[in-house]
Specification:
The protein is an alpha+beta fold. It is built from two helices and three strands, in the order H-E-E-E-H.
Length: about 110
């Protein structure tokens, strides 16, 4: 049945291969120690933030905007990877909250 929904000259999804490239700067990654997540009906926004110890403010280092369906797939992939990580290296302990800090956005 799935072949009936495909347009002519379109290969089946399983046979498609995507080559992914990454530039030098992106491959370095961005460290964050706080993530904030917000959403509306059509999208999720993930802000990745670095807070320096004793600093009065922090800066968003990276922002990802994606669909609810994709964020669900991402959550499942993260859960699977955490399970495999803990099987190999042991349980990840939840950090204890020392003090609650107010976090806001500033320009």
């Amino acid at each position: 049945m799935s072949e009936q929904n495909q347009t002519p000259n379109q290969p089946p999804m399983a046979s498609k291969q995507i080559q992914i490239e990454i530039d030098e700067q992106t491959s370095q990654g961005v460290y964050c120690n706080l993530a904030m997540i917000s959403h509306n009906e059509t999208e999720f926004v993930l802000d990745f933030i670095f807070i320096q110890p004793q600093a009065p403010k922090a800066k968003v280092r990276s922002r990802i905007i994606t669909s609810p369906a994709h964020i669900k797939r991402l959550m499942l992939a993260i859960n699977d990877n955490i399970k495999r990580y803990e099987q190999q290296f042991g349980e990840i302990k939840k950090p204890q909250v020392i003090e609650e800090k107010k976090v806001g956005f500033y320009n």
